[in-house]
Amino acid sequence: MRRILTTTAAVTLVACSLSAAAAQEITVAAGNMSSYLDPGRDHSNVGSQFYFNIFDPLIHRDYAKVEPEWLPGLAVAWELVSPTTMELRLREGVRFHNGDVMTADDVVFSVNRMVQATFPPYQVRMRDRLSNIDRAEKVDELTVRIHVEREEPLWETLLNLQQLFIVPEAYVKSLAGDPDAIEDDDYEAMSLAPVGTGPYRVAEFVPGQRIVYERFDDFWGEPAPLERATVRHVPEVASRLTALRTGEADIATNIAPDQLALLEADPEIETVGSNTALFHVVIFNSNHEKLEDPRMRRALSLAIDRELLNETLWLGQAIVPSSHTMAEYGPLYMPELETFYHDPDEARQLLEEVGYDGFEVVYDMHSPSYYTNDTLAAQAIMEMWAAVGINGRIDASPEWTGNDPAMMARTWSNPMYFADPFGSFGVMWAPGGPSESEGRFTTDADYAADWEAFRFGKTVEDRREAYGQLMERIKADPPVLPLWRPYESWAMRQAVSWAPQPGHIPYVLDFRAGAIAIDGTN
Amino acid sequence: MAIHALEVLLRMALTFAVIVTLVFFATRLSGSPIDFIVGEGLTSEDREILIRYYALDRSWWEQYRAFLMGFVDGQFGMSFVERRPVSAIVADRLWPSLQLLLPAIGLTLAVALPLGILAAVYRTSWIGSAIMSVAFLGYAVPNFVLAVFMILVLAYTLDWLPVVGNGTALHFIMPTITLAAGLIAALTRFTRNAMLDVLGQDYMRTARAKGLAEHEVILGHGLRNASITILSVVGLQIAGLAAAGSVVVESIFAWPGIGDLLVRSAMRRDYPVLQFGVLTVALAVLVVNALVDLAYAWADPRLRQAEAA
Does the predicted model carry a pTM greater than 0.80? Predict the structure, then answer.
């Protein structure tokens, strides 16, 4: 009987993988699912999973590499025609999923909707990362020029952004109200029925539940390896794993660290992991009257043994950074900087110098907690503070307190929105940026000068030097302590070969040619 | 009977009007949606712009008016999160919820009524004890434990049943059992007790004395008289399920139902969805209660006659 069962199981398994291979179809059980799909307004970790299969940027990169290597996208060539103007020649015969042929008008529309934004959600992205781009203009049907205000060291990086993926002008305008004019409701409607130029078209999208991709036969590049891919929202991690076992899913996302051992024992299932390009951080309120003295905040930071937390909570799989730096920054990756470190003796000494009187330091965190290991880390940090004499207390609430003047310290995250320090530290800690504007961080003219030099420096060396100086300022007067880059895992059935590509922003489910294969196909 | 029905309907309408107003204010006491809708890591200027765009700066009075207008245009407002009409979102979820609820109720009735009657009739024999032991066990095991146990055995280990969603008939087995298990346990106990109450009554002896067969006595006279209690319990059970009682099951089996929708919109303070969802549930509870009221009158002639007099 047992043998019959085993044989049946084996036959079923083979049949399943054969049919999957023949049909080139997969199902993904995803821990999170988008409520809308608009690459322009979105910069969430949930949305980033989906856009890359649907849309293209003007300039692609080799996503298999950490170091930036720019490749033609919807533009086949680009050159500076003046210090502040880039001319791009567009790829000919590119079709959108609705059949429209892409022209310079679509590119101008897509860029200008973001950089001369009237739609409020776009205005936010315009200001936090696209403020240097002034406008796009059409030269002829296949040529556009993009103008910037100041000489731009990050041309390719910016034109590769998810926010500047190209959308079809006529289609978007036709969605709501006047079919020839652009209104806010057009963008709202587009986010439920997205159309791009990518290798997959969206055959079905039910917000919060599922997205179904289908191969787009008129794709300009290498054809999509899958005929069809369905991503379903399966909120429970145990259900996601069981779905892999039963064959209902081929890939499961967001596998909790404590499930990995179970999966490793299963010969039918493989896991891949990567250190997400995102820092879990502790932020300090530099303007809180009790924390105004930078030595107080340095003591709070020096007391935390991040390596120990990594070993115990992440089994050593997280990455603890010495500075606000990531390998993805490419030439601006500066692991040699020692901005953040653990030194309890120095912490004690600083506390003595400032005459710390034992006042309570409140550590805010989100409840329910949404960062892996957030709660355990907070509890351990309280103990580490206590070890140097700091009286800490955790306050968990569902409210965001980052803009509350009474906030002292809290957990947060600093994602890498794009692969440059500007796309991570630069967005969050810009002069006048979110942190300063919320009142918990104050910059002066010197900081602003360094920030400008790092953002707009003409050579890599200039930028590196300025970024190093910025990190010195952060070290001396810390508003933030990056704890680690969390370790994220995906699990999949043996027949599927997929891994997160190192050239992407976090969480991208890249199903393009070369990024995924099912046994029996390429 | 007609007057009774009218009264029931009128009471229902009045209750609904009160609930509409209460729901509006109660959802807003849960906290501000701004952090969830607008997001973190924004400059205060951008934050203001988005607050205005999502109309989160309107006074409660304006919001209340807009909320009532939603009943007129039939869209019930726009979701803050999904940016589509609430009616469309709830419509997506309503049918899957019913798909889960109806078989669960059916299974409950089919299993619990016979078991409860048997347990009452054979109360002194091992049959009665066995049924009640199982019923207590079912009552004591939380549904998520049962669900995870079934998943481990039937899906993870044996690979007999699927776990994700509502695609095929096989998908219904585990969620239906999970949902029905607790109800069966409860209803079996109530049915047994209600039957015990009537089994000793004089009219039962009379029925037997008339020479009716034992099954006619038990079902025709016993069950009929016990049905008032049973109806109340079943009504409460359905109302409880409609009121997001299936949220755990929906979450575990990735079932796109209304319980999951309600909990998510409560967590994200998506008021338009939350208030309409709560209203849908309230309406379902009211309808169930009204039906139970009417069923009482059907089951108990004295109620009908009292209304008529």
Answer: yes
